[in-house]
Amino acid sequence: MLKPRPVGLYLLIMSGLIAIGLPSRLIPAAHLPRWHVLYCGDYLWAMLIFFGLALCWKGAGTFKVVVTTLLLTYFIEFTQLFHPPWLEQLRSIKICALVIGYDYSWSDLVAYTLGISTGCLIEWAMLRRKLSTRIHLAQ
Predict the structure, then answer these.
(1) Residue range 37-85, pLDDT digits in tens
(2) How many angstroms from the chain centroid is the CA of residue 120?
(3) 20 to 30 A Cα–Cα from 91, which one of 54, 78, 133, 137?
(4) CB-count burial class (<10 Å; 0-12, 13-18, 19+) for 43
(5) Residue 65 Cα distances to 18, 60, 73, 119, 130, angstroms
(6) What's the pLDDT score for residue 129?
């Protein structure tokens, strides 16, 4: 049986990821460490997408959410290989650019995979702890 996901905790995690990740895209790169600018935003963005999908798709197991998030983030990254005028118009809007990105980079795929894996481990630990707490309280 699928364990319920704690909505409040997921929203708190997602808010934290946004608060930590936005500086990597909004603060000029000269003021941040190079690794932070190159990888941190992508890592946190993928984890945010994982928690968002997990929250919206309550009936799905963690594995389905992981696979779906990987496919979605990889798809978005591959769209960065294309630059038709309509897509460039979308990218000129800051919020759209934060979601769909600008340029393809294979290292982003690594950051996405690591971010989604971290999100999966966090979810697994939270749901496992919640289940063990229930079992302990029932005894």
Answers:
(1) 778 889 999 999 999 999 999 889 999 999 999 999 999 999 999 999 9
(2) 10
(3) 54
(4) buried
(5) 20, 7, 12, 10, 19
(6) 73
Determine what percent of the chain is predicted with pLDDT higher than 70.
91
**Following DSSP, what letter does each residue of the chain receive, concatenated?**
-PPPP-HHHHHHHHHHHHHHHTHHHHS-GGGS-HHIIIIIHHHHHHHHHHHHHHHH-TTS-HHHHHHHHHHHHHHHHHHTT---HHHHHHHTSHHHHHHH-SS--HHHHHHHHHHHHHHHHHHHHHHHHHHHHHHHHH-
Rounded Cα–Cα distance for residues 116 and 43 (Å): 8
d(CA 38, CA 33): 9
Phi, psi of 5 (to 5 degrees): -85, 130
